[in-house]
Specification:
Length: 637
């Protein structure tokens, strides 16, 4: 793997490839980067990297067959020209990531790299999404032509264009909802791995799928610091049913769907409700006027003895000042006529206010909404810039209520908020009363993603003073600052959930997954090991084609989790009797594409996989390498 970049994302990506995927990495950086401390791998994850090296060495000595963690080679180059790419070994590389901060630099290097190695997987960092789509098609077509024609469907020389906003936003949204950024996203669904610890003598309850059994010494969680590297009762990945039943007292890692169970969201599109046309005070005023008219009509009927309909008609004539004076009538009739005229005068401003409010409602139907009264359980999002807009869209797709706070009335995300009918509070978040207007005291989480680190920190501290147990997620640019803020906030509020992450920290896993191939959906660490999630076509893998789900399952290697039937008409019900989909009952309101209904989870063991199927599976590193044939490729090399 070759990584070229000029900022912290390059170092983070190189560390992700080495530590998580065990790949050999060549890092191409400008000469000035040599004197800059790597912001991620060298410090924030140095302990984890060293630990994984020790774990792998211990496993290899024990003969367990683990893959060694790859090394890293650094090449200094002012720009990624042909000489620099050749020095990095692009002709022999499997994938190349170009993550410079300049779009033109990445495009120029990608064109050069495609010419040097047509079979190379390319991952580009581009801010211009529309340009990125055209560049992706162009480079894929060039790879197909260089491979001898065709559409390149059988080649692995794919091109993937990503941006910081597109990759960091889902992780930020997942952190606000699930409390962790270690999630897997597929077909509009958000899945997370959850550790479940059973009571003594009991087996933990299963979730959507049992991914692993934790160490018997209970040393699970986010890392293995302080654990015994030679412990034979380490985590067991992808266990079979017998192992799960026999794992009494051991915790499990299960896959769960992240969903929102709070109050329903208001409709994002459609007609304006009639009740919203007029304010509450105006509705009460209209009701009072109707009551006065009825009372005057009843009084006229009692005084004059005319028919009730005639009394109501005469009252309306008096009310609207139609010429019908009560000359020669009784005193009571004349008094009622004067009162009706007075009520008619009072009715004029009420009718005028009703017309103005109705016009204002229709005019502001496409304008920014204010947070409704009684709103609670929502996410307060600070900042509607490039990343904030993506986060807001992602939260809306997950049917999670969100209130945005933005100080710039011309921010790029306001148009999207207006279209999605997301409530927005315009104001400086550092000013008193702005967070209160966003209902922070009843919120579920605070997501601070403005472009200023100090603003995000100030908002988080103020929100914690209002709600000490509030879940807080901060987007910070500097890794060291993010680590310091996280440790301080966790120490000050140990019972509250706190996350502070830099953009490079959140974006690196997506870039690393794209470098491994388009089929990689994500990775989740389980103690000292890693589980990969991938989407594969059954027809290309004889280990899956023609076999039932039970026969295709290989304990400790891979397991089929779901079937993607979105592109398979007529196959939705084959072999799925009684199986159903765990997420089929979930509402898809707010999803722009509705693709999540194409995934079927909890497949019965008797379901037969055919060559036309596409499945989502969980696998270990070695298991996925065997399934994709990469072990044979490396052995041949």
């Amino acid at each position: 793997m070759v990584v070229c970049g000029d900022d912290g994302l390059a170092h983070r990506l190189a560390g992700e490839l080495r530590v998580v995927y065990g790949e050999q990495v060549t890092l191409v950086v400008p000469p000035a980067e040599r004197s800059v401390r790597p912001p991620v791998v060298g410090r924030a994850r140095a302990t984890t990297a060293a630990l994984l090296d020790r774990v792998t060495a211990a496993v290899n000595r024990a003969g367990a067959g683990g893959e060694p963690v790859g090394g890293e080679r650094v090449v200094e180059a002012a720009e990624p020209n042909e000489e620099a790419l050749a020095a990095a070994g692009v002709e022999r590389a499997a994938a190349l990531a170009l993550v410079y901060d300049d779009d033109e630099t990445n495009i120029r290097a990608a064109l050069t790299a495609r010419r040097l190695n047509p079979r190379l997987r390319l991952v580009l960092r581009l801010y211009n999404r529309r340009l990125g789509q055209h560049i992706e098609e162009l480079l894929d077509q060039a790879a197909a032509l260089a491979a001898g024609g065709g559409d390149g469907s059988g080649s692995d020389a794919s091109t993937t264009v990503l941006s910081d906003a597109d990759t960091a936003a889902p992780a930020l949204a997942a952190t606000a909802v699930a409390g962790t950024s270690k999630v897997v996203q597929t077909d509009g669904l958000l899945l997370r791995a959850v550790e479940r610890t059973p009571r003594p003598g009991q087996v933990a309850e299963p979730g959507l799928a049992t991914l692993a059994l934790l160490s018997a010494n209970g040393n699970g969680g986010g890392g293995a610091e302080g654990s015994d590297l030679d412990d034979e009762q380490g985590p067991l990945l992808l266990p079979d049913a017998a192992a799960v039943r026999g794992a009494t007292g051991r915790g499990t890692v299960v896959l769960e769907q992240v969903s929102y169970s709070g109050p329903a969201l208001p409709p994002s599109r459609g007609a304006v409700p009639f009740a919203s046309l007029f304010s509450r005070r105006l509705r009460w005023s209209l009701a009072g006027m109707v009551g006065c008219v009825v009372a005057l009509a009843v009084a006229l009927w009692l005084v004059t003895g005319v028919h009730p309909l005639s009394a109501f008609y005469l009252t309306l004539l008096d009310l609207f000042a139609i010429d019908n004076p009560a000359i020669g009538e009784s005193v009571g009739r004349q008094i009622l006529q004067l009162l009706s005229g007075l009520v008619g005068l009072l009715l004029l401003p009420v009718l005028l206010a009703a017309v103005l409010e109705a016009l204002g409602t229709f005019r502001t139907a496409s304008a920014l909404r204010k947070p409704p009264r009684g709103m609670g359980g929502h996410v307060v999002l600070l900042g509607l810039g490039k990343i904030g807009t993506r986060v807001m869209t992602r939260l809306r797709e997950l049917n999670i209520p969100v209130v945005c706070v933005e100080s710039d009335p011309d921010a790029r995300g306001l148009a999207t908020a207006r279209r999605l009918r997301v409530p927005v509070v315009l104001g400086d978040v550092t000013q008193e009363g702005v967070l209160e207007a966003a209902k922070i005291h009843r919120a579920h989480a605070l997501l601070a993603v403005t472009s200023a680190d100090t603003t995000n920190l100030e908002a988080a501290l103020y929100a914690r003073s209002v709600r000490p147990d509030l879940r807080v997620v901060l987007r910070l640019y500097d890794d060291d600052f993010a680590t310091a803020v996280y440790r301080t906030l966790r120490a000050a509020h140990p019972r509250a959930s706190t996350r502070s992450r830099s953009v490079s920290h959140l974006a690196a896993p997506a870039f690393a997954g794209a470098m491994m191939g388009r089929q990689i959906l994500g990775a989740i660490p389980v103690e000292r090991r890693v589980l990969l999630f991938a989407a594969v076509d059954v027809g290309r893998h004889p280990q899956l084609d023609g076999k039932t789900v039970a026969e295709a399952f290989r304990a400790g290697a891979w397991r089929v989790l779901a079937l993607d039937k979105g592109d398979l008409p007529g196959r939705s019900g084959r072999g799925l009797s009684g199986g159903g989909s765990r997420d089929e009952s979930a509402s898809d309101e707010g999803y722009e594409d509705g693709r999540h209904s194409g995934l079927v989870w909890d497949l019965p063991d008797s379901y037969v996989l055919s060559g036309a199927d596409r499945v989502v599976l969980a696998a270990t590193r070695t298991g996925l390498a065997e399934l994709l044939g990469r072990r044979r490729e490396r052995a041949g090399a």
